[in-house]
Amino acid sequence: MRILFAGVAAAALLVAGIAHADAISDRQALIKKNGGAAGVLAKTVKGEMAFDEAAVLAALKTINDDMKQFRELFPAGSETGDTAASPKIWENMDDFKAKIAKMISDTDAAIAAPPKDKDALGPVLGTIGGNCGGCHETYRLQKS
Question: Does a structural domain hold residue 127?
Fold first, then answer.
């Protein structure tokens, strides 16, 4: 019976470890995808890409959809491993999720009234970039 219990406990720990690793890799993938979407917006504002309303809207939707998933990828235990997520996230989860909610709200507004040209996109990108930067300053570990 002890062997069975030990085996079940070991399997549960293995599954939990895999789940946490998946949360880390999933959030890393979403952040990378968001970086690509933000890159489209930044290149457009800088004039490195021609303004394309469909591409801008797609980038905004990507960020919005990703943030809705992202907020769910911080289960207890996923603060360790190959991650740049600061332990402060788990210490202040309500504030962290509030920051994500603000990003979702701001991208919802931009999607509802999409910018029609590069000049209108600038302030939208400023807001989105401010959301990213504000969260990263507090909740992302700096690489040494």
Answer: yes
